[in-house]
Amino acid sequence: MTNAAAFTHHIRQRIARWWRARPHRAAEPPLVPVESIAGRALIIVIAIMTFLAALTAGAAQLVGAASSEWQSAVAREVTIQIRPVAGRAIDQEVARAAEIARATPGITGVKVYSRQESERLLEPWLGTGLNLDQLPVPRLIVLRLDDQKAADFGALRRSLVENVRGVTLDDHRVWIARLASMAQSIVILAIGIVALVITATALAVAFATRGAMAGNRDIVEVLHFVGASDGYIADEFQNHFLRLGLKGGVAGGLAAMIFFVLAGALASAWVATPGGDQIEALFGSFSLGVGGFIAMGLIIVLVALVTSIGSRITVMRTLRQLS
Amino acid sequence: MVRFENVGLRYGMGPEVLHDISFSIEPQSFQFLTGPSGAGKTTLLRLILLSLKPTRGLIHLFGTDVTRIEADKLTDLRRRMGVVFQDFRLLDHLTTYENVALPLRVQGKEEASYRAEVKELLHWVGLGDHVNARPSVLSGGEKQRAAIARALIAQPDLLLADEPTGNVDPSLARRLLRLFMELNRSGTAIVIATHDIGLMDQFDSRRLVLSEGRLHIYD
Hints:
The complex is a heterodimer.
Chain A: H1 3-21, H2 39-75, E1 77-82, H3 90-102, E2 107-112, H4 115-126, E3 139-145, H5 153-163, E4 167-170, H6 173-215, H7 217-225, H8 230-269, H9 274-283, H10 290-322
Antiparallel strand pairs in A: 1-3, 1-4, 2-3
Helix pairs in contact in A: 2-6, 2-8, 2-10, 3-5, 6-10, 8-10
Chain B: E1 2-10, E2 16-25, E3 30-34, H1 41-48, E4 56-61, E5 64-65, H2 71-78, E6 81-84, H3 96-105, H4 111-124, H5 140-152, E7 158-162, H6 170-185, E8 189-193, H7 197-201, E9 206-211, E10 214-218
Parallel strand pairs in B: 3-8, 3-9, 6-7, 7-8
Antiparallel strand pairs in B: 1-2, 1-4, 4-5, 9-10
Helix pairs in contact in B: 3-4, 3-5
């Protein structure tokens, strides 16, 4: 038998042993009466916590994805800007800069903005019908980069500065760095919020477990007297709280998933409206990818585990104090 | 089986409620633990059941010094004892059958392996028709017999019964006592805590008498 097969066999045996030794079968009623535990209130608390955690994770995933889209879009283009300089014909400077750019390896497209096009870019700020002849309107050349082959911006910048007056090359590095750090900050913030929510859930479960144990102290004592071990009693509480955690977690997680599906549908319906454009600019298409839904599923599992393990730790600690 | 040496107990900083208790319980023996109300009979039973720790002295259970025992070993010792509480302590949300089967269930045994045994015991104590009844619909005597059946189902080496006849009429009390004697003959050591002098006078047995926190033994 190979190592992997032996390991799988060992795990199967462990699971089978655990299954045989689990505290009660489906036909046997729980030893801790279900109605004695403030189950409904705890399910609601867990559902709200899971909803908040899943919402945070989903929002972080959306912003992260939108930021990546921005970054890749911005990184595919660089801009040459040429300011008018007294005594120099700007059209010649623009033509020379375009020529240098076209000759540079790694650049697949050069789009020279004419004077009229440059003036039109200013219209949103200055309005229409203005005579801009007297204004030193800079001219722009947008370069499209080759995805496969990286351009040498250092060499391009040096060549432009040597041959063209009033030129600057903007490769958007500052923007990209800012976007990356913003996305990182949002993800770190989201992880922090999820951790806080999980901690709050664990504390709520600990309080609920203590309450349940206090309310069932007589039963715990009888179980001890009839020969139940601490581990067996903890299993009884843990199984119950695992079910509560799963119910609350699934309810909250599903609510968050439905929220994102509905929000995505609304965002699609609003496309091409001013509000829709703003939302799309901030969050992209507002639709969670598979990764987002997997993250929410993991949060549901995490919440259920925290509920189950948290209750077990509380029960074991309380039993140690009792004995 | 059980050996107490100069055991004392006080609650917190209060006065000592049990002083210098020394006695032993031999295998297959039968004894009454008696004394006036509040003398400490239940407290002494709780010391044997390991639900209280003595303030001083030594307790040996089944050859083990319990003052130095680890928590997981307590369960093994408790499984060798059966207990009948004065107030029955049946779990209200379980049926009579489930209550009686409890000691076997908590040992992780399969239900199929003990079903017939539990039903037979329920018939033996006269509760064959109440297998699926919950404690809330049982009479005091029926609850008492269910509690006794629960204490016996795992065939303990030692049975501790706290006022087992306190809630039943004299006729049933005699029947229950005969049941305990029969169990004793089959090999179980028995300690019955009671203050019913009339009941004790019907059976000539060893008496452990608690008075003002001290134990007097009449063999």
